[in-house]
Amino acid sequence: MTYLLRNVHDIMRREERSSLLADSGGSPGMYEFSATGQLLPILVGTTMRDASGTDLEVPILGIDKNHETDTVIPLGGSLEDPGGEGLVPIMIGEKAVDPVTGVLSTICGVKMNQEFGVTEPVTLSSSTQRKRRPPPGSVSLFIDLFKVFVCLFIQCLKAIAWQLNISKRDFNFVNLNVNF
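Above: the chain's sequence. Below: its structure in token form.
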């Protein structure tokens, strides 16, 4: 019963998300383009002026929510080039000195530094994207459901073989009995 309720809830949540996506055209929000003051959709990959005050055009790499104003803000910024070439835009896949470990590592994302209000890179050496473990009990639930599926599948095969009048010597699955 709870399985059905979860599925219905999941379908309703997905339907709500897809309708929001259809209404917004895939844009999580709007931002003010600094050069013209025009409101533009936030699209990952397009460029914007660096919010930290430099005159660099930087790519939008993600979004964050400003909890004070309850608005969505684009994430993109600049950092000091590890090769000593001054400020450069933060780009996924480029090398940067990790702000946490101080090691040169590949940029895999960005996040908003709430203390200073600037976008900073997330690198592979400091990212919190560890291998996720399944919730407790989900593996055993999956195994139980798989066993039920296998039993139902075998019953269906037996029924098909019976309806088609397939002899037992032609197929071995007719006599197959599964006990878990």
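The longest strand covers residues 104-113.
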